[in-house]
């Protein structure tokens, strides 16, 4: 029986009409992209910013996104007229640490005009230089000037006013630090929160409470002294650091005088006796720190630090 022939198909070259896929970022509206980007952490946000020009513009133009980004300059730098920073992200937060700032003529204005938060920590920056820095920060809302080893000198601030600044933290070695704070307050007519991080005397606090009592939220005191008199009109106080002998009765009075107190630290070199009854007065308290060689609580001596 003759075998059946199997038909064959002669194949020639064949070209399929399929184009190579291209990855194109989704064409969402800017406001939609902003809402999506808000769920990213800062690291991912900066990576997304590099994806394409449109996404970069979306991130850069969104104040809420840029307020999450911090530029922290390297330590041990000299910022003078010759300093030229690399191209920076238009962040709204900047920190200087362990550096010297002697000139801001050319490089600072493009950075400063968009800032909402500026931190100067352990730097050599005179008050006259601080004024020059602040002249280029019209949007600033928060200033942390923390230079406990660099003495501040009051200078002529001219007509400088920062109407948007609401929060000020200051730490300088000046004994008259509260006078410095009062001078700075004149620059910030809408100041709402003041934190003085250098230890001051209770007498100095009492003397100047009329000038600062309505904004003072954190203070560090050398000793209790006439503490009660100084606190009675500082109802906004949230953080208190006290050195010296502190009694349970005194802490109860503090609780009555400062209903918004959230944090209190007691530092002592002598044995003290405390009972937790004062905690009933401090209904908003979140942090309690007691430092010393030893203190007695409910008759038990506890050594070292708590």
Describe what you observe in this structure.
This protein is an alpha/beta fold. It has three domains: 36 residues; 132 residues; 88 residues, no CATH class. Helix content is 25%, strand content 22%. The protein has ten helices and 15 strands. The chain has a ten-stranded parallel beta sheet with strand order 1-3-5-6-7-8-9-10-11-13, covered by helices on one side. Strands 12-14-15 form a three-stranded mixed beta sheet, with no helix packed on it. Strand 9, helix 9 and strand 10 form a beta-alpha-beta unit. Helix 7 runs parallel beside helix 8. The radius of gyration is 30 Å and the shape is globular. The C terminus is likely disordered.
Features:
F-box_dom, LRR_dom_sf, 3 domains, (northern house mosquito) hypothetical protein, three-stranded mixed β-sheet, 15 strands, globular, 22% strand, single chain, 306 residues, F-box-like_dom_sf, ten-stranded parallel β-sheet, 10 helices, alpha/beta
Question: What is the gist of this entry?
Answer:
The chain is α/β, with parallel strands linked by helices and 306 residues long. It is 25% helix and 22% strand. The protein has a 10-stranded parallel β-sheet with strand order 1-3-5-6-7-8-9-10-11-13, covered by helices on one side. Strands 12-14-15 form a 3-stranded mixed β-sheet, with no helix packed on it. A two-stranded parallel sheet has the order 2-4.
